[in-house]
Amino acid sequence: MLDAIHYLCTTKSFLTNTDAQAMKHGADFFMVKGLFTRAEQEEEILLSLRKNDKKLLKRNDVEYQKLSDHIGLLPVVVISPLDTNLIYEGSKERRKVTDLILSLADSHYLHQLIRYNRLLQQRNTYLKETVPLRKCSLEILELYTEQMEPLAEYIYSVRSQFWEKTAKWLSEFYSQIANSTEDISVAYQSDLAQGNLAAMLREATARDMDVLYTTKGIHKDDIDMRINGFPLKKFGSQGQQKSYLIALKLAMYAVLREKTGMPPILLFDDIFDKLDRNRTANVIRLVRDMNFGQIFLSDTDPERSVQIANQFHGNARFFHIHSDQKIHIE
C-alpha cells in the first residue's frame, strides 16, 4: 500500500529497482489509482504498466506525455529499513535520494539534471566509440564541456544549499529521537568544491581517454555521514545508525516542506520493529508535535500500531491487509 502511494507520487517504487518486480508473480500488468487533495483541489492519479511496454500516467484523466512533468505535484518522503543502503551502499544511492527530494521540490532542478545526465552519457559513449579507433577529437570533447559546465554549476549550488539546511535539521531531530548530545553531522562532497567543471574536465582528459568514461563532475558527488567525528558506517551502533537515518529523512522532509510550502506525505514503512520503545515514542512525539502532515505507517504488530495511533489522540484509521490481499478499514 505504501509503495502504491510512492508510485503515484514519484512514478517509481521505493521497494524494487525495476517495475517488473512490482508486478504480481505471473501477471503481465498492474495499475494503481489514488485520490489526493492538493491546494484544496482533488487530484486523481492513475499509473499503469503492461509488461514490455512503457508506463502510462494520467492526472484527472489526462495522460502525461513525459513522466518527469508529474514529479513535484505530490511531494512524499519515505522512511524504511532499506534506508541502510544510504550507509552501506555506494555513492549512487546517496545521490539518488538527494536528487529525488530536490526534484520533488523543484521541477527545474530535475530538468537540468536530466540534461546533464544525457550529455554525460553522450560524452562517455563518444569516448568508448572513438578512443579505441584513435578518432577522439578534443574539439568535440570541449563542446561537451561547454554544455555540461553551467548545468553542473547549477546542480552543485542547489545540492550544496540543500545539504547545508538538512544538516541543521539533522542535528536537532537526532537529539530528540536519541535523547543524546552526540555530535551528528552530514557533509556534501563534490569535485566542484575544488573549482569549476570545465577546468577539471580539461585536466582529466588524458585519464578519461584512458578509462573511457568521465571521471570528474557532479555525477561523482557523495555525502559524508559522521557521529562524534567518525564515519557512521564504521563507528555507529545499530541504534545510532537507525536514529541517524530516521533523523536524516525527517530533516529532508523539513527542507522539502520549506521549499514547496506544503507538507509532503510521510511514509513509515515497518521501521519500528527493531527500534526500542523510547526511540519509537520519541519519533512519534516529534512528528506529532511538529505537524508533519499526513502519515501512512505500516507495521506487522497490531498492538504496537494501536499504541502509536493513540499518540495522535484518535486521529487515525487502520487498514488491515490480510494474506489474501483483502483490505479491511476501521
UniProtKB/TrEMBL annotation:
Biological-process GO terms, alphabetical: DNA replication; DNA synthesis involved in DNA repair; double-strand break repair; SOS response
Provide the alphabetized UniProt keywords: ATP-binding, Cytoplasm, DNA damage, DNA repair, DNA replication, DNA-binding, Nucleotide-binding, SOS response
| Top-rank taxon | Bacteria
Asked if the record carries the keyword Isomerase, the reply is no
> Which InterPro entries does the protein's record reference?
DNA-binding_RecF, P-loop_NTPase, RecF_2
Question: GO molecular function terms here?
Answer: ATP binding; single-stranded DNA binding
Write out the annotated subcellular location.
Answer: Cytoplasm
Q: What do the Gene Ontology cellular component annotations say?
A: cytoplasm
> What is this protein's function?
The RecF protein is involved in DNA metabolism; it is required for DNA replication and normal SOS inducibility. RecF binds preferentially to single-stranded, linear DNA. It also seems to bind ATP.
Q: Which family does it belong to?
A: Belongs to the RecF family.
UniProt cross-references to HAMAP family, sorted A to Z? RecF
Output this protein's name.
DNA replication and repair protein RecF
Source species, please?
Thermaurantimonas aggregans
